[in-house]
Design goal:
By secondary structure, this protein is α/β, with parallel strands linked by helices. The chain has a single domain (3-221), classed as 3-Layer(aba) Sandwich (Rossmann fold), CATH 3.40.50.300. Helices cover 46% and strands 11% of the residues. It is built from nine helices and six strands; from the N terminus they run ββαβαααβαβααβαα. Strands 1-3-4-2-5-6 form a six-stranded mixed β-sheet, with helices on both faces.
Length: 224
């Protein structure tokens, strides 16, 4: 499902409408699921994009592939076209979400938008629109977590928009270039997430014992 609602009422009294931003693996989907269980209406950008790509993700033999397999790595021949299509659909999905959040039925509804790591490439105008509708909450990974995130990426690849940050040098293998460029990509994204964020919560805080949905919402509200 790309949109979710729960019958259970939220434990919060004031309406909370947030968009979670940050890198793949930072916990956006995890916290979106937690909030959904507390009655938040949830928009998942990845799910909405995957729905757009349904036919592309089904092979002729009936086997279904992941978006990461479909997109591939930046040195593979299909990557450039796949990256362009993915971004096109991401822009369409964010426009769809912004339009939906303007509807009267969401005025008093708690909402969480689970964005992709490539949100920052959709353009300042569209991000500003989302920022008007929601509080942008950046789930920030520690600087020392980049190596771990790279290892996680290799073990469990996700669709990644490199946006020109993959640059293979003479004498490098494809994987050597990937290893060198991935941390640079993450550092560049960190700066952009910081630029757009209304609220920043570091992963160490999110992982503290006893830190649940109530504390998560209180942390967001304390920034205002």
């Amino acid at each position: 499902m790309s949109e979710h609602s729960a019958s259970q009422e939220s434990s919060t009294t004031a309406t909370v409408q947030i968009a979670l931003i940050g890198m793949s693996g930072s916990g956006k989907s995890h916290w979106s699921a937690k909030l959904r269980k507390q009655g938040f209406y949830s928009f998942s950008c990845d799910d909405l994009i995957e729905k757009k790509l349904k036919e592309d993700l089904e092979l002729q033999n009936g086997k279904k592939i992941s978006m990461a397999e479909w997109m591939g790595l930046p040195y593979e021949p299909q990557y450039a076209d796949a990256e362009q299509r993915y971004l096109k659909y991401e822009v369409e999905m964010l426009e769809y979400i912004c339009n939906n959040l303007s509807a009267e039925k969401y005025n008093n509804q708690n909402v969480v938008v689970d964005t992709t790591g490539s949100l920052i490439y959709t353009g300042d105008e569209l991000i500003s629109c989302l920022k008007k509708k929601t509080t942008l909450v950046y789930l920030k990974a520690a600087s020392g977590a980049i190596d771990a995130m790279y290892k996680s990426f290799l073990q469990n690849p996700r669709p990644v928009l490199w946006h020109g940050h993959y640059d293979k040098k003479s004498g490098e293998s494809d994987k050597e270039a990937l290893l060198r460029c991935y941390p640079q990509l993450l550092k560049c994204r960190q700066r952009e997430y910081e630029r757009f964020a209304d609220v920043v919560i570091d992963i160490e805080t999110l992982r503290k014992s006893g830190f649940g949905v109530k504390e998560f919402i209180e942390k967001i509200q304390s920034w205002h």
